[in-house]
Amino acid sequence: MTRLTRSDIDIHDWAARASEALANAKNLPQGSLRSQAIRRAEQLRAAADMKNLLMPEQPNGVLKVTG
Fold first, then answer.
1. Cys-Cys crosslink for 25: which of 2, 11, 37, 58, Cβ 3.0 to 4.6 Å?
2. Which of 41, 46, 43, 50 minimizes the C-alpha distance to 19?
3. Local confidence band at 38 (pLDDT 50, 70, 90 cut-offs)
4. Does residue 23 form part of some domain?
5. 3-state secondary structure of 10
């Protein structure tokens, strides 16, 4: 698993990272390392879901209107 710096987190899609982390964790052999990796991937997924709820679509806080 790649460690991200604080500036890297802002430019990457958290949900994609969570999916990638879960896929990598499931490829590990059975054991405590795999369980821990799956748990952390699930935590990242929860963080991605919370980020989507709490962060606005646009940096200025105004949602983009289309149509």
1. 37
2. 41
3. very high
4. yes
5. helix
